[in-house]
Amino acid sequence: MFRKSERLWGKAPLMSDYDAVIIGGGLHGLATAYYLARNHGMKNIAVIEKRHIGFGGAGRNTAIVRANQRTKENLSLYKEGLELWPKLTAELDYNLMFYNCGNLNLAHSEAALSAMRMQVASARFFGIESHIADPKECKELVPALNISEDITYPIFGGMYHPPGGIVRHDAVVWGLAKGAAKLGVHIHQGTEVLGINVEKGKITSVETDQGTISTPRVLNAAGGYSASLSYKMLGIHLPVSVLTIQAMVTQPLKPLLDHVVSSGAYHCYANQTLKGEIATGAHMDPWPNYTTQTTAHYIKHQAEALSEFLPCLRGVRFMRIWGGLADMTPDMAPIMDGNDPIEGYYTDCGWGYFGFKSAAVTGKYMAQFMADGECPDMLRPFTLRRFEQHRLMGEMAGTVVYSPWN
Amino acid sequence: MALTITCPICGRRNGYEFRFGGEDKGARPDEEGLSPEDWCDYTHNNTCIAGIQKEWWYHRDGCGSWFTIHRNTITNLEAEATA
Ligand SMILES: Cc1cc2nc3c(=O)[nH]c(=O)nc-3n(C[C@H](O)[C@H](O)[C@H](O)COP(=O)(O)OP(=O)(O)OC[C@H]3O[C@@H](n4cnc5c(N)ncnc54)[C@H](O)[C@@H]3O)c2cc1C
Ligand SMILES: [Zn+2]
């Protein structure tokens, strides 16, 4: 019954030369490395992680996946991302614990409902299941929901998106690391990138605290640290604000919440984990910082919000709280770019608090980009230049605006 | 550490009374001959220093002043200006 435990991936020596160096052992870095090896036959790849894989947002997120964004560029990417989880589970031979319990997003005003109607129509246009639910259906989906008028923000209805849900985030980190390492990718933990060298407009090497690595390709997938790294190492400014976002879990409870429930007005979302805890994500302190600190302010906020729309949670205790970094862009859409202005330099960041659900699919396309040097059509709209061209994406209106501005 | 901000008029107050006003990027650029790149740099781009930065704050729930401070983004503590 008990097998001898095996390491999921081995330790490799740091070579002085790689075909691609990926900065950051988060989800995006590991996924890109995996697909570079799997789809493009590139085996001489290093993932450089200053702490340990999953140290950043990858190991701190609330694991929610969905494909009901607002704009066409985002919808098609997230749709493919959502469809990837079961395939990836099989392919990696690793249980990613995809639980497609569906997401219910609450509307607390007529205006919010109208906005959802448009979001539903857009999703459906791409063949993504999503519909408007009236308060009665919301209550059927989540019997614990308080649909009375007796709360601060009464529920007018919601947007229900059945194919979404949760995926075990640590499993994705480990599964991708296992898969990538098996294909020959070197994962170097405890190694920090300190500089990126460019000659005549081309990437030549990367400086780490363990030595210099020659390489023609570098991917900046440093999550919350990507914008600071981009400016410090290459002088490239990014339209990013880095904020700390907090999440917490309650003590384990009997099953009571079968769907992910979210509310923009309450700045709160919640789901019940397979262990029985209610995991809930909060709003962000609206000033840039790298602290990842947790605050009583948000424990109180979450308790107030949850005990209003899920009143059966009154008196339930929070067990753990943690914080992570969110790299927010002005249009709530990520930045994926490459070979501009430096040949061989690629960026995949600006994922804010929504970069878990998209990690695998993004890795697939970023790998294609890095292998061919040509930007795949799927990623073109996400170019950094959209900001100077005044072509910001309309994802701002699709969610609560979690920027430093509110 | 909870954030406190020192308003030039009201003194040191709870950070939640204030609204963050962005990194200090110097004067608004002259519109005459301004390129889209430079305008983008001024409006959208940030330096995102992990360390001490000069930044704008607005005392929203107080006297309404706009002012700049130096703050360490790694600790959230106000700091002396660095050279
Ligand atoms: C509390 C919270 C809740 C969230 N909830 C959700 C959710 O429900 N759904 C969703 O889709 N997304 C969610 N997210 C967002 C998601 O976690 C991130 O967008 C995602 O993890 C970004 O992945 P990444 O690989 O780009 O970065 P990360 O996972 O942050 O990885 C970056 C890595 O780079 C490393 N690094 C940095 N600098 C260097 C350097 N100089 N040298 C070497 N390594 C370096 C870091 O140590 C880190 O491990 C949430 C985030 C948080 C914090
Ligand atoms: Zn004041």
Task: Provide an overview of this structure.
Chain A folds into 2 domains: 20-62 and 169-239 and 332-398, FAD/NAD(P)-binding domain (3-Layer(bba) Sandwich); 103-162 and 241-328, D-Amino Acid Oxidase, subunit A, domain 2 (D-Amino Acid Oxidase, Chain A, domain 2, 2-Layer Sandwich), CATH 3.30.9. Helices cover 27% and strands 23% of the residues of chain A. Chain A has 8 helices and 19 strands. Chain A has helices at residues 27-40, 72-92, 110-125, 135-141, 169-182, 226-234, 296-309, 359-372; strands at residues 20-23, 45-48, 64-65, 103-107, 131-133, 157-161, 165-166, 186-188, 193-199, 202-208, 211-214, 218-220, 241-250, 260-263, 268-272, 278-284, 318-328, 335-338, 345-349. In chain A, a hairpin with a 4-residue loop joins β14 and β15 (268-272). In chain A, α1 (27-40) crosses α8 (359-372). The radius of gyration of chain A is 21 Å and the shape is globular. Mean pLDDT of chain A is 95; it is low at 400-406. With 83 residues, chain B is mostly beta strands. Chain B has a single domain (4-72), classed as Folate-binding fold (2-Layer Sandwich), CATH 3.30.2270. Chain B is built from 1 helix and 5 strands, in the order βββαββ. The longest helix of chain B has 8 residues, at 36-43. Chains A and B meet through α6 of A and β3 and α1 of B. Zinc ion binds at residues 7, 9-10, 59, 62-63, 65 of chain B.
Topology readout:
The complex is a heterodimer of chains A (406) and B (83).
Chain A: E1 20-23, H1 27-40, E2 45-48, E3 64-65, H2 72-92, E4 103-107, H3 110-125, E5 131-133, H4 135-141, E6 157-161, E7 165-166, H5 169-182, E8 186-188, E9 193-199, E10 202-208, E11 211-214, E12 218-220, H6 226-234, E13 241-250, E14 260-263, E15 268-272, E16 278-284, H7 296-309, E17 318-328, E18 335-338, E19 345-349, H8 359-372
Parallel strand pairs in A: 1-2, 1-12, 2-8, 4-14, 12-19
Antiparallel strand pairs in A: 3-7, 4-6, 5-6, 9-10, 10-11, 13-16, 13-17, 14-15, 15-16, 18-19
Helix pairs in contact in A: 1-5, 1-8, 2-8
Chain B: E1 4-7, E2 11-14, E3 19-23, H1 36-43, E4 52-58, E5 66-72
Antiparallel strand pairs in B: 1-2, 3-4, 4-5
Bound molecules: flavin-adenine dinucleotide and zinc ion (ZN).
The site of zinc ion (ZN) has 7 residues of chain B, from loops.
